[in-house]
Amino acid sequence: MSGRSPSGRRITLFAVVPVLAIAMVLISAFQVWASEDDDLVFLGKSIFFDTNLSKPPGQACASCHDPAAGFADPDSDLPVSQGALPFAVKSRNAQSVGYAAFSPALYYDPTPRPGIMEGMYVGGLFWDGRADTLEEQAQMPLLDPLEMHNRNKRQVVMAVLRSDYAPLFIEVFGWKSLRSMDEAFESVAEAIAAYERSEEVSPFTSKFDYWQDGETELTEAELRGYDLFTGKAKCKNCHSLDGGPDGRPLFTNFGHQNLGTPKNPDNPFYLLPPPFNPEGDDYVDLGLGAVLNDPMENGKFKIPSLRNVAMTPPYEHNGVFETLHEVVQFNNTRDVADWPPPEVPENVHRHDPPMPGTFGRLGLTDEEVDDIVAFLETLTDGYQP
């Protein structure tokens, strides 16, 4: 069935007559929420936690972005993220969506920075920056065969319209959102993005925030860690204390760098059959370089926010490091200790000429590494002063 709207635009009811009937029944029970913005966020949260949006059912957005794990993957037993199917794993560890709303669209910034004099790409979402907006980001996992495994947009939209929050979907977006499958699917993504922009996902309620407001005190170890973070260890060069709302640091400059992260031999993605991983054990994740088709960007991945970092093991794009202590120690001794070689040896971020006190040769003692970890643990949301 098809027709034209008063504007002359073609309307396709993509076999939606039974869906409309269902929604008409459901909408009679609809309750009014406080405002349109609240409606959209509430709808987005409902979709975000809906385990019926995968095929087979059982996986929601929240399965890999759990609030209890800093909106990252709660399963630390695997180095990378599990999909809806038993064998399906991604090549990467799911990044937190916490504070992702503050990331700009991907762009090249030629501004020289400490230790990064050549400039760099900044922004985007995912480890490789391939999505510019939360709306784009929200759509991709729903249709990824190794994630939520829906064959097409229709499966997603129909699941939403069969849900108990379907009346709210119609109330927020109106019947016009059902004019085409593309428009309906984009509405689903818009709602998810609204939730990801909400205060619930970016609450700024860590011990660090209360300390910044003068409402609590840091321990001696945490204070030493803060001094190291902003001083000797130079962590703030990449995990910036600038750029957040109301002076709240986001602990990232949103840049992309190749830190020389080793390959993870325990990554189960290497075991996937050729349709998903034709290179087998020889697979190399090129990161931003693959997105831009630019060898000069090979091996570069987005610098994550450190907010809630203590809740989000394992670490780096391939989950190669299991603990924060291991990550800090790698940053400390990459160039002077016996670490495995980089997964992508070109474009590794190094100080030229090599100098003590730079990334990979920071000269931190074991106690100083412990102090930095203690400070990083103050970045966990939900602190009660």
From TrEMBL:
It comes from the Bacteria. One of its GO terms (cellular component) is cell envelope. Keywords: Heme, Iron, Metal-binding, Oxidoreductase, Peroxidase, Signal. The keyword Iron applies. InterPro entries: Cyt_c-like_dom (IPR009056), Cyt_c-like_dom_sf (IPR036909), Cytochrome_c_Peroxidase/MauG (IPR051395), Di-haem_cyt_c_peroxidsae (IPR004852). It is found in: Cell envelope. Residues 220-380 form the Cytochrome c domain. The keyword Signal applies. GO terms for molecular function: cytochrome-c peroxidase activity; electron transfer activity; heme binding; metal ion binding. Its main location: other. Pfam families: CCP_MauG. This is Cytochrome-c peroxidase. It comes from Abyssobacteria bacterium (strain SURF_5).
